[in-house]
Design a protein that fits this description.
By secondary structure, this protein is α/β, with parallel strands linked by helices. The chain has helices at 2-13, 23-27, 55-63, 77-86, 90-93, 109-115, 167-181, 230-234, 259-262, 266-287, 291-326, 358-361, 388-395, 410-413, 483-499, 503-510, and strands at residues 30-36, 65-67, 70-71, 119-125, 138-142, 152-154, 160-162, 188-193, 333-339, 365-368, 377-379, 383-384, 425-429, 441-445, 449-454, 460-465. The strands form 4 sheets. An 8-stranded mixed β-sheet has the order 5-4-8-1-9-10-2-11, with helices on both faces. A 4-stranded antiparallel β-sheet has the order 13-14-15-16, with helices on one face. It has a two-stranded parallel ribbon with strand order 3-12. The model is unreliable at 1-25 (pLDDT under 50). The structure holds 2-deoxy-6-O-sulfo-2-(sulfoamino)-alpha-D-glucopyranose and calcium ion.
C-alpha cells in the first residue's frame, strides 16, 4: 500500500534522526491515552472547578475538545478499562467486577492497531486480574492497585521490581523511556495508566498541605437523606461512616501497621509523619468533633488529600506534553486525558463511584489533535467508553470490526453535528456486596433522563430528569404524570438490552 511505501521511504530518509516524524506517522497519528484512576471531572479547572490547580489538563482542553457527557458503562476500575480495550460491554468482554480475570486473548484495540501498523504499549496501573500477555508490544504494569510510594512493577519477563520514588513520576519516566526507545518508523499507541487519584490519596511529598488554606465548599447534597432511593440508603460509602480516620485520612495512623506506609523509606516516612502527625492529627485532637461537624472535617481533609494527589498527576501530564513538544511530536499525536470513571467528592455525602448517577457515570475526557480537532471546543453529546476503541480505530484509518459494540464519535470530534437526539447510553453495574454495598443495577441515560432498574436484593425503578434535577434527588419513577415517560424509556431500555445482548438484564425484565 501507499502507506507501506511511504513508511519504507520514511525510515530510509530519517534513519537515526530523533526529532523528525516519518511521512507514515504523518498519515496515521500517534495516540496517547492518559487514563487516571478515580479523577472526578468536578476536580478539574477546565470543567469549571475554581480551586483545583490543573494547568496542564486545562491546557489540553484549551488546545483541544472537552467532553461534558462522556459516560462509562460500568463505573468501576477494571471493568471500565476492559470496556475501553474491547469496545464491548462487560457482559460481552467478560470482565464485570474487579475480582475477575480479564481474558487478554480476545480481540482488543491494541491488536487491531498493530494490524494497522502501530506499535503499542501500556505502562502503569492495569488492574485487570491477569497480565497483558501478548496484548501489547510492550508493557510494564503494577500488580493489582499498585502503591503510591516505591511501587512494584512487573515487566514482560515476569520480573517484579521495586522502584524507589513516587508512582506518578515513575510512570511518566517509564512512559518517556519507552517513547525514546520505540521503533520510530511506526506510529505508536501508548496508554499511560495512572494510579492517582485512587484511595488512599497519598500526595507527593512536595504537595503535602498544598490545599490547607482552602475551605472547600460543601456540596449541597452532602447531608442527603436518600428519600425515595433505597439503594442509596443502603450503600456503604459515606464520608461520615465508611471513610476511615486513620487509614484514609492519616489521623493517628500507625505507619508500621499499613503496608502502604511500611513500604516508605525513612525520609518519606519522616515527611508524612511530620505533616500528618504534627499537623493533621493535632488539629483533629484539638477540635474534638463529633456528628455533622466531624463529617465536615473529614470531608475537608479528604478534599485536601485528593486535590494534593492530583497536583502531581497534572504536573506529570505537563511533563508528557513537554516531551511531545521537545520531540516535535505534538502536532501528529492525539492526546487523550480521561479517567476510568467519575467519583464522588462529597455529593450525596459520598466518596467512591459505582452508581449510575451523574458524578460517577460521567468521566473527564479531553482530546487534543492539532489541526484536526478545533482548539477550545466542547462536545455535549452523550457518548461512552465503549466508543473509545472504535473512535481510535477510525482515526487511525483502520476498519472497525462488526462485533465492536461502541460507535466511533470521530465525526463529533470533527465538529459534525448530528441534528438528532443522541442514542441512549446503556449501563450495567454488578459488583455486590463489594467494598461499598452498591446494589446491582442497569439502565439508560438519554439527553434528558436517567432510568435505572435495581435488581437482586433490591428490586425497583428510579427515574431522574437530569436536566431539571441534576443532583438526582427526586425519583420520579412512581409518579403518575411520568407514566408515559416511563413507558417510553422502558421501551428504549429493552431495545438497548437486546441490541447489546445482555441476557442477564433481559431475564430481569422478563421476570417483572
Ligand atoms: C479498593 C478501595 C475501594 C474501591 C476499590 C475499587 N478500598 O477496594 O474503596 O472502591 O478499591 O477501586 S481501599 O481501602 O483498598 O482503598 S477501583 O478504582 O480499583 O475500581
Ligand atoms: Ca477507578
Amino acid at each position: 500500500s501507499i502507506a507501506c511505501v511511504l513508511a519504507v521511504l520514511g525510515s530510509i530518509k530519517f534513519l537515526g534522526s530523533k526529532t523528525k516524524e516519518t511521512p507514515q506517522a504523518a498519515a496515521q497519528p500517534n495516540i496517547i491515552v492518559i487514563i487516571s484512576d478515580d479523577h472526578a471531572y468536578q476536580a478539574i479547572g477546565a470543567y469549571g472547578n475554581k480551586i483545583a490547580h490543573t494547568p496542564n489538563i486545562d491546557r489540553l482542553a484549551k488546545e483541544g475538545a472537552i467532553f461534558k457527557n462522556q459516560l462509562v458503562t460500568n463505573s468501576i476500575c477494571g471493568p471500565s478499562r476492559a470496556c475501553f480495550l474491547t469496545g464491548k460491554y462487560s457482559h460481552i468482554n467478560g470482565y464485570k467486577a474487579n475480582d475477575g480475570k480479564f481474558n487478554v486473548d480476545q480481540q482488543m484495540l491494541p491488536g487491531l492497531l498493530n494490524k494497522a501498523g502501530y506499535q503499542t504499549a501500556w505502562i502503569g496501573k492495569w488492574h485487570l486480574g491477569t497480565l497483558p500477555g501478548k496484548a501489547f508490544d510492550h508493557w510494564e504494569i503494577m500488580p493489582d492497585q499498585g502503591f503510591y510510594y516505591n511501587p512494584d512493577f512487573i515487566g514482560q519477563s515476569n520480573d517484579t521490581t521495586r522502584t524507589e520514588g513516587y508512582v506518578t513520576n515513575i510512570i511518566t519516566d517509564k512512559a518517556t523511556q519507552w517513547l525514546d526507545a520505540r521503533d520510530k518508523s511506526k506510529p505508536f499507541f501508548l496508554v499511560v495508566g495512572e494510579k492517582a487519584t485512587h484511595r488512599e490519596w497519598l500526595p507527593e511529598i512536595q504537595d503535602l498541605g498544598a490545599y490547607d488554606d482552602v475551605d472547600f465548599p460543601l456540596p449541597t447534597t452532602f447531608f442527603d437523606d436518600y428519600a425515595g432511593r433505597p439503594a442509596a440508603q443502603q450503600q456503604y460509602m459515606t464520608i461520615a461512616k465508611a471513610m476511615q480516620l486513620d487509614r484514609d485520612l492519616k489521623v493517628n495512623v500507625d505507619f508500621n501497621e499499613f503496608i502502604l506506609y511500611k513500604r516508605m523509606n525513612a525520609s518519606q516516612r519522616k515527611a508524612f509523619s511530620e505533616y500528618y502527625q504534627q499537623k493533621v492529627t493535632k488539629d483533629f485532637e484539638q477540635k474534638k468533633l463529633s456528628g455533622k461537624a466531624l463529617a465536615i472535617w473529614k470531608y475537608q481533609r479528604y478534599m485536601k488529600d485528593y486535590y494534593a494527589t492530583a497536583n502531581s498527576l497534572d504536573r506529570n501530564i505537563g511533563q508528557i506534553l513537554n516531551y511531545l513538544d521537545k520531540e516535535q511530536l505534538s502536532k501528529n499525536t492525539i492526546v487523550i486525558y480521561a479517567s476510568d470513571q467519575g467519583f464522588y467528592l462529597g455529593e450525596h455525602g459520598w466518596f467512591d463511584k459505582r452508581f449510575m448517577y451523574e458524578e460517577s457515570l460521567k468521566t473527564p475526557f479531553i482530546v487534543r489533535y492539532p489541526g484536526k480537532v478545533k482548539a477550545g471546543s466542547t462536545v455535549n453529546n452523550i457518548v461512552a467508553n465503549v466508543d473509545w476503541a472504535p473512535t481510535l480505530l477510525d482515526v487511525a484509518g483502520a476498519k472497525v470490526p462488526a462485533d465492536i459494540q461502541g460507535k466511533s464519535f470521530w465525526p463529533l470530534l470533527k465538529g459534525i453535528k448530528t441534528g438528532k437526539p443522541d442514542k441512549p447510553v446503556y449501563y450495567h453495574y454488578y459488583e455486590y456486596p463489594g467494598p461499598h454495598l452498591v446494589n446491582p443495577h442497569f439502565g439508560i441515560r438519554t439527553n434528558q433522563y436517567t432510568l435505572i432498574r435495581f435488581y437482586g436484593k433490591l428490586n425497583y425503578w428510579e427515574l431522574y430528569d437530569v436536566k431539571k434535577d441534576p443532583n438526582e434527588l427526586k425519583n420520579l419513577a412512581d409518579r403518575k404524570e411520568f407514566a408515559p415517560t416511563m413507558t417510553d424509556l422502558k421501551k428504549k431500555l429493552e431495545i438497548a438490552i437486546s441490541e447489546y445482548k445482555d441476557e442477564e438484564a433481559e431475564q430481569v425484565i422478563k421476570n417483572l
